[in-house]
Amino acid sequence: MDLKDLNSMQFDVFRELGNIGAGNAVTALSKLTNLRIDMAVPTVSFLEFNEIAEKVGGADKDIAGILINLSGDIEGMMMYILSTKATRSLVNLMMGSFTTTALNEDIENYSDIELSALKEVGNIISGAYLSSLSALTNLTIITSVPYLSIDMAGAVLSVPAIEFGKISDKALLIDTEFGTSDNSVNGYFVLIPSLDSYGVILKSLGL
Questions:
Q1: Pairing of strands 76-83, 62-72
Q2: What digits encode the pLDDT tens for the residues 121-153?
Q3: What CATH number is given to the structural domain containing 65?
Q4: 144-156: b (≥16 Cβ within 10 Å) or e
């Protein structure tokens, strides 16, 4: 299938899947941290890889990306992207740290425990998203061990771009904002199924 040929109903389905998946991810984080975490309504769009880089602040913007490979009924990748500021906020939520000394955005100064926490929370958030997608579509989605990459946006996004650029130049981007009254996180889910997998998802929903 060609993503350019998606009709409004099909796009609305992917948008709703994005909303539900993001909501489940935030619920999982809330249970993990034992905090009340509110979420703004996510923005869902299909963007080219270079547009995604611009969306997160530009190709030379330092970001953290947690990448998970997908297999089973759906093949592709899921990436959760965070700016350095959002990365610190997410680690703070995970570790219960809200002191001013913990607001350093320089990821190079993160401890091994903080980097481990970042990878784990990224895994939990992405896993919750994919679990909801699996439940809604009744499809089997097998996930790999998460891989944490900290680099400029252009370099981080080059991995899925090279892997899937020959098949599709677009990905499903879910822009999310969530947090507590003291700590907010703005992050991006990037779902990159193969073109065949888009068709499998739609067929599973009777479309």
A1: antiparallel
A2: 777 777 888 888 888 888 898 888 888 888 888
A3: 3.40.1550.10
A4: eebebbbebbbbb
